[in-house]
């Protein structure tokens, strides 16, 4: 079983994120899911992104590094949307990563960490085909930078499709993503 450090999306540590964490734990994994927003929840992604930007890059780096500080090196980093940025950064810069999962956002490692994902670190990504939050060119850059990654693109045009507490929730895509994530984790 894997030890996972999960970074939530822009709506915060929502009941849907907690449900996702619980599903991973029920499957036998150890999951740490720090609340990077100190209990604040948002109804719109735009508001959560504005909050993150208000905290600033250096503060978010401090918070995510502090979350990893007392954990073992061989973590699987699982980021959700904006959390993919911070999970990717740690998977690249903190030695010993066991794996990387990017849910909702194809974030190319070099754009957030200035370096490639270390050789031998398996990666898996999930996003929707028509997601308005996916930056133009990001999927292509991700595939170029992490050619060994398992990429899963779902039909639809929502963002937080696996969070049942989000208006973006898509039960079919969410179930398939969870199945694929559990398979990925089981193979590590």
TrEMBL record:
Residues 4-186 form the Dienelactone hydrolase domain. GO terms for molecular function: hydrolase activity. Keywords: Hydrolase. It holds the Pfam family DLH. Signal peptide: none annotated. It comes from the Bacteria. This is Dienelactone hydrolase family protein. InterPro entries: AB_hydrolase_fold, Dienelactn_hydro, Dienelactone_hydrolase-like.
């Amino acid at each position: 079983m894997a030890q996972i450090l999960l970074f939530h999306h822009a709506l915060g540590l929502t009941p849907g994120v907690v449900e996702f964490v619980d599903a991973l734990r029920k499957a036998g994994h150890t999951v740490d899911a720090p609340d990077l927003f100190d209990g604040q929840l948002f109804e719109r992604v735009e508001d959560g992104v504005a909050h993150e930007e208000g905290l600033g890059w250096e503060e978010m780096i401090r918070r995510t590094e502090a979350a990893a500080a007392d954990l073992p090196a061989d973590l699987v980093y699982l980021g959700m949307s904006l959390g993919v940025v911070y999970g990717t950064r740690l998977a690249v810069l903190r030695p010993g990563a066991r794996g990387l999962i990017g849910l909702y956002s194809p974030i190319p490692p070099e754009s957030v960490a200035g370096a490639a994902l270390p050789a031998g670190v398996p990666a898996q990504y999930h996003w929707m085909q028509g997601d308005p939050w996916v930056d133009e060119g990001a999927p292509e850059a991700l595939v170029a930078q992490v050619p060994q990654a398992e990429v899963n693109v779902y039909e639809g045009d929502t963002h937080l499709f696996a969070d049942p507490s989000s208006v973006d929730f898509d039960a079919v895509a969410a179930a398939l993503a969870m199945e694929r994530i559990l398979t990925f984790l089981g193979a590590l």
